[in-house]
Predict the 3D structure of the following.
Amino acid sequence: MSGRYSDTRQMAPVAVKIVISGGFGVGKTTFVGAISEIEPLVTEAEMTEKSIGIDDTSAVANKTTTTVALDFGRITLDDALLLYLFGTPGQDRFAFLWDDLVDGALGAIVLVDTRRVEDCFPAIDYFEEHEIPFIIGVNTFDYALRFDLEEVRDALGVDPDVPLVECDARDRESVKRVLVALTEEVLNKRLSRERAGSAW
Amino acid sequence: MFPYAGARPAAPADYRPVSSSPESDEDPIVRPFMITGGRTRPLQDGLRIETLLRAAPAALSAPLRFESRRIVELCQQSMSVADLSVALRVPLGVARVIIADLITQDYLRVEEQPNELSTALIERIRDRVRAL
């Protein structure tokens, strides 16, 4: 990111976004923090129309905001390629943020806690519906509760072609493997799409 | 509930709604959008959280108020909406409004991105991540 980009627009760095999703407390923050070069946090303000009756100093007197913290990570892959990781908020009341977070994403990683697999159903539904390439990272933080990946697949009810990978969100190497697995899935999806497109 | 709370005590929860009450919190309820004059909608659509922005060097000498000036300074290198939001300590929605104003005034421009990432670029991402 040096000055040489200032006069050649086609040399602008490319920013790529990957979305990290899953239920509350599944390890999204840990996952992003394991690989990000910055503190994994950004905020968004939720506007509500409720009157709070105490503000008389601004034009938003009858609006209130609630701040929500989002997981946010950045990885500089080279001087012209930036990878951003964003965690989706797990709570329904912040669902309005999802479209904005997911729009334009390369793909998504859905983290699953085997003790509460159902927590990730909304995320899986969302990515299936929006045709976003995604893989499932089965968090292996509690070895006593490890399941066979195929058992987890059955419990999730996802297509056999959706990749499931083991993931220890605390471990940078594990997080790297999950990210690599997602890029492979994106490439596979593209390849099969091209094949389908060229068939006659 | 929080499997990693012990491993990373400083880490925030997945999300952390802050229902501020004015007397108990240093971040009062209505402050975020005060610096935008109460506007919550950016003049320009399509600013994603990862959208990269860049300022013209000439913008440094423009008469801009605090947040706008800071953005122009930071954007002497490419900076994303999310990065700017963090640097300014404002919510994304607030950053978007100020950024959109600066684009409208020609102080900032959006770094053009490919319409679709090439296979070669995705392979580059994969290889670079692997090599981290």
User: Anything to note?
Assistant: Residues 34-130 of chain B form a domain with the Arc Repressor Mutant, subunit A fold (CATH 1.10.10). The helical segments of chain B are 66-74, 81-88, 92-104, 119-130.
